Amino acid sequence: MSSTALKTIYLKEYTQPPFVIDRVKLHFELGEEQTVVTTTMTMRRDGGGDGALRLDGRHLQLLLVKLDGRVLMAKQYEVDEESLTIPMVPDSFVLEIQTLIKPQENTSLDGLYKSSGNFCTQCEAQGFRKITYYLDRPDVMTLFTTTIVADKAKYPVLLSNGNLVAQSELGDGRHSATWQDPFKKPCYLFALVAGQLEFVEDSFTTMSGRQVALRIYVERHNLDKCDHAMQSLKRAMRWDEQVYGREYDLDIYMIVAVDDFNMGAMENKGLNVFNSKYVLARPDTATDADFIGIESVIAHEYFHNWSGNRVTCRDWFQLSLKEGFTVFRDQEFTSDLFSRAVKRIDDVNRLRSYQFAEDGGPMSHPVRPESYVEINNFYTLTVYEKGAEVVRMISHLVGAAGFRKGSDLYFERHDGQAVTTEDFVQAMEDANGIDLTQFKRWYGQSGTPRLDCSSAYDAAAQRLTLTIRQSCPPTPGQATKLPFHIPVEIGLLAPDGADCPLQLAGEAAAMGTSRVLECKDEVQSFQFINIAHPPVPSLLRQFSAPVKLNYPYSSEELAFLMAHDSDPFNRWNANQQLALLLLHGLIEQKINGGTFDLQALGNGYSLYSEAFGQILAEQGGDLNLKAMAMALPTENYIAETLAVVDPIAIHEARWLLRGALSRDHEALLCENYENHLEQGRYNVKPESVGRRAVKNTALGLLASHDGSGIIELCYSQFNSADNMTDVMMALRCLTDIQCDERQQALAQFYDKWQGEPLIVDKWLALQAMSRLPTTLADIKTLMNHPAFNIKNPNKVRALISSFVNGNAYRFHSAEGYTFLADQIVILDRLNPQVAARLAAPLIQWRRYDEARQLLMCAELKRILALPTLSSDVREVVSKGLA
Ligand code: TRP
Ligand code: ZN
Predict the structure, then answer these.
(1) What are the φ and ψ backbone dihedral angles of 664, each rounded to 5 degrees?
(2) Among positive and negative, which fits the CA dihedral 786, 791, 797, 802?
(3) Distance 301 CA to ligand 2 centre (A)
(4) Residues 251-273: pLDDT tens digits?
(5) Is the peptide bond before 858 cis (omega within 30 degrees of 0)?
(6) Any idea which ligand is nearest the CA of 307?
(7) Helix 724-735 vs helix 710-720: angle between axes, to the nearest 10 degrees?
(8) Residue 518, SS3 per DSSP
C-alpha cells in the first residue's frame, strides 16, 4: 500500500469462502535472478452462487493463467495490486497460474526470501499471496504437493511440508524434490527451504510406537549447537503425549534455523522455520535464559501441531485461538520441567511490564479483535500473553481434569477444521457442564480490569468480610464495559503466619486454605466465618487473573506476607509491592524538586531492608526464586503503577534503592556470591541455573554502588568464566561503569565472537542498555559498525529495540525520539513489520509529561506526513495519534 487510504477488515463481515480447493500442486523454479512459481489448483464452487473467482496476490508478476487447460487472454481476467479476478468460472475446474517473483530482493522477510544465501518462506499471516495468487485465508484448507527445482551445488537441500515422495537430477546441474503433505492445511502453514544446510538427526517413538525422524537443519558451522534444541523437542513431544494425550502425526519433523526472521519461529506443518536465536546454544555461546527460551519456543511450535495446525483458525480475528492456547501450553510445559513459581513470576513480569501498557494505550484491542488494518500488527502481547491468561483462567475454573476433558473434546470435535474462540469455549463448557457466557467477555472487551478490595474484621462475630469491586477503564471503541467473570484465588493468614481454614457464611464446614472466589458482579462481598483473629488477606494467589489489584496494605502487612504467605507467587509479589511503596515515595521526592531521602519515608526502608537481609540469609530452597526475590520491580512495571511517568525519576529512584540495599548488605551479598560459585561441569538443570542466578544477582547488586574491588571482580569473572551466563553478567555490570576495563572487555568480547551473529547481538544489546550518558552516541556509532545490519531483525532488536524498550532512562529525550523516528522511516521501506513494532514506545506518549508528549507527537506526525508509508506503520502511527 502506498498512499493514504487504509482498508479496515471487520470480524462482523466474515463470510464463508465461496470456493473450495481440493488439491494444490506447487512447482518452484528457484533462480538467482528470478523464481517462477506454477500453481495448479483443483477447485469447486461451494454453497451455490455464481460469482467471480477472486484470488489474493501481492507484488506478483503474472506470466500465465490457464483454466481447464486453456490459456486465458488478458481480457478474460483482471489484475490489480491485491488480486487476480476471473469473472467467469465453471462450478468445478482446474486453474493453473504462473507467477514470477524475486526472493533475493525481498527484504520484508514475508513470503519467499533469502537468508544467508538460502531460500526460505514465511507465510503467516498473509505471506503466501506474495508467492502466488491464492485464496489466502486460513479457512481454505487443502492438500499440498510441492516440487522444488534448483541448482544442486548452490541448493543441495530442498525441503517442504510432509513426506519426500520423489527426487531427481535434471542433468543441467539442477535437481528437484517433490514433497507431499497428507494433511489438509491452510496456506499460512506452507513452507519451502532450499540451501546449503546440514542436519543433526535423532528419532522419537510415539506413544503408539511409531518412529518419527527428527532433523534440525543448520549451516555446517552450527552443527555443534543443536543438541539442546533436539533434547527440548523430544521433551515437548513426550509432554504433549502425557499431559494432553496428543501424538505427532507425520514420519518426519524438521526444524530449520535461519538468521533473518521477523519473529521467534513458525509452526509450518512438519517443517518449522526458526529464528536461529531459538535453536543454537552451547554453554559458552548461550546464557541460561537463552537455553530456557529455546526449550520453550521449540515446545511452542511443536504444540502448534495440534493447537493451530490440526485445529486451525477460521479467520485472523481468531488468532488467539491458537496463540493464547499454545502459549498456555508452553508455559505449563516450562512450569513442569523447570519451576512453576519462577515461570509464573517471569510471565507476570512480562504481562505487567508490557502487556498492561499495550492494553492501556491507543492500540489496545480485545484478545479477539473486532477489526484490523494490517493483521501483522495484531501479533501482540494481548493476543499471545493475555490470551494465555484467559485460557489459564478457564483451567483455574474447571480444574486440571476438567480442562483435559475440555481439550480432548475440542481436538476430537474440530480435528481438520478451521474454528473460532467460541468453539474452544463451547468445548470447555460442554465437557464440564458449565456456563461460560459471561466469561467470554474476556475475548471481546479490551483493557485491564481493576479490582479494588477492602476487608472488615468483626471480632465479636469472628467474621471477615472481603469486598471486591471491579471496573475497567475505557479503551478505543469501548467507552464502557460489562462486568467480567474473574477467578480470584485467595487465602487468609492468621497472626502466626499460618493459613486459616476457609469457611464462607452458609457453608457447613471449612474447606481448604486457598479458594477461588468467582467475581461476576461489579461489587461482591464474601464473608468468612470462624476467623479467630484479624487475618491478613493474600489476594489473587498465583496471579489468578490478568488484573490490577488494589488493597490498602500497610508496609508491615506486606512484610508479613513476604515472610509467611504459603503461595510463592504472592510472597514474591508482596516483596514487589513493598518495594513499590518505597519507590513511589522516592519518585515523589524527586518530582517535588527535592533530593532522595530514604529515612524520610518512615519505617518503610528498614522493613524492606530487614526482609531483604532475611532473603539473603536464607539457605536452601529454590535458588531461582531467591534470585527473583532479590530483584526490585522493573522500571516498566513501576511506570505502569504511576499516573504520569517520569522515566528519569523512576530510574534514579530505583538505582538509589539498589545502591542503599547493596551498601547495607555488602557482606551478605559477597557471601552469596562466594557460596554460589560454579561447581563442576555446566548444565542447565534448575539447581545450577539457580546458583548462577543468585550469584549473578548478587554481583549486579554489588556493582550498583562503587564498593572497593567491584570492577576487578567483574573483570575477573568476565575473563575466567566458562559459560556465557557468567560472562554476560560480568560484562553487563562493566558496561554500566565508565572504566578502562569496560572498553577492554567489550573489545575482547567482540574480537572473540565477531563470527557468531547471535553473540554479536548480545554485545550490541548490552551497549544499548547501558546507563552511561554516552549510550545514544555509542548506538549511533554502532549503527555504522560492520557488526550492525539494519536488514537483519535480530540486529535491529539488539541495538534499537533494546534501547527504546529497555533503556527508558537514556531513550526518553528529544534526541532519543528523533533517533527512533528516523529508524522507523528507514525500516519502513525495508521491513514494515519490524518498523511498525518499533513504534510501540512512541505511541505511549499520553503517559508522559506535557513536554515529552509534544516531542513524541511531533515525531509521530513527521512519520505520518511521509508520502509513502506501509499500511503496517500507518495503522500504528495513525491510531497512536488518534
Ligand atoms: N505463529 C508464529 C508463532 O507464534 C508467529 C509468527 C512467526 C509470525 N513468524 C511470523 C507472525 C511472521 C506474523 C508474521 O509461533
Ligand atoms: Zn505461536
Answers:
(1) -70, -20
(2) positive
(3) 6
(4) 999 999 999 999 999 999 999 99
(5) no
(6) 2
(7) 150
(8) strand
